[in-house]
């Protein structure tokens, strides 16, 4: 089964629209102010910004863990609980459950037995290269492998959107690069849509086709950098001059965002 | 640097490794031998002290006499032991059901917890010897009274430990359950109960000992003799008759019961946790 490749940017169907979204905590802490973001099918979007810019808040709003104070978040064609896959900064696995049982979780919560979804679980584990570790317990795996299980769990429902909240930040650089490469391979295979929160300029440039740069106090979109380098991106891309240029561009945008001093907050 | 690398294919074992391995081997043996040896020495010393000082057996019997009495009085002591064990295990069972049940109710509703937690604390901090006389006034059935006393002592560690466990689930996992639309029951069944298991088992180990203490103490207070008396009553009775060897024999049985309960709880804990929980995993280094 080969799905058609991801169309170029500008020709993708809309998946999700956030318009004029505000989030205020405790009545006075503005976490997000007037956030506008269109997510298209097949986008790999990085949310890049300093801490406190509301990246994680934006993810929590999209995942439905929080409700926005004002503004709209609309899904094309509505949404249900299997539409979103989530990967956190920690692998967030249940230590008492085997790898297989951990990946079963999203289906289990929808009332499906392990037997019913055995093929899907195996498929998801194959996607991350862990099909031989079905019966292992999380403690028997390395940090990178645990993260792969976490990714498999996010994939197993074949979600329309995968949210990743700094998933590789706690890993060593070699493992992180490996997982970056594998994530792009997965994305190429599955044509999935990803929103990836990071504070690494290099990671965001390597992975995404759109970098949404956010500024803090209040959290808002500062600018967007388009990464027009073609996929598949390999280790050569990581050391190319084009990559360095793009990193500089993204880095400039990030510094721009950090120097903005919340004009809109005072307005 | 490469010229100092040892290329021999035989396993390389340096001096430190050898010492480490030897120390481990010794420790493994000492773990069993040392306590047994010390216990034997203590009993031997006890025996010597009695013989050398010519202490009469109605003050301090020799260990051999205690064992002899245990065998001679076995028909009396065994039925008493059975009564005590029965009350202890029943109290522990009710404590598990009550403690876990209350803990689940507490975590399902904050308001329920706010309302009833003070009662649990009051029951826990009031010494059972102080409440027991009242209980035996209000409760006609002697067995029910004993059970109630033992339960009051035993249920609190299970309640507080299990509540703590149910509330210490990973917050990211809780978020994940919410995103996937888990019901309250699913969250309890698949997430909170497994998270609480190590805490519960810790509480069970404490509660096992406390149930025995509760059973013995409440029988001291209840005091009525005759058929259906436990070890505590036999100790009191033997004390009045200055039958000190029998007191020691009964005491020995109580201590042995406590050890058996503790060991059983520890084995259960190991069986349930050894695959995944830090507390039960042996480190390689």
From TrEMBL, chain A:
Pfam families on file: ABC_tran
Keyword Cell cycle attributed: no
SMART domains associated with the record: AAA
EC number: 3.6.3.-
GO molecular function: ATP binding; ATP hydrolysis activity
Alphabetized UniProt keyword annotations: ATP-binding, Hydrolase, Nucleotide-binding, Transport
Residues of the ABC transporter domain: 16-241
Protein family per UniProt: Belongs to the ABC transporter superfamily.
Protein name: Aliphatic sulfonates import ATP-binding protein SsuB
UniProtKB/TrEMBL annotation, chain B:
Superkingdom, taxonomy of origin: Bacteria
All copies of domain ABC transmembrane type-1, residue ranges: 81-269
Subcellular location: Cell membrane
Transmembrane portions of the chain: 29-46, 87-107, 119-139, 145-166, 196-217, 247-273
Biological processes annotated in GO: transmembrane transport
GO CC aspect terms: plasma membrane
Presence of the UniProt keyword Transport in the record: yes
Keywords: Cell membrane, Membrane, Transmembrane, Transmembrane helix, Transport
Membrane topology label: Multi-pass membrane protein
UniProt KW Coiled coil keyword: no
Entry similarity comment: Belongs to the binding-protein-dependent transport system permease family.
Annotated protein name in UniProt: Putative aliphatic sulfonates transport permease protein SsuC
Gene: ssuC_2
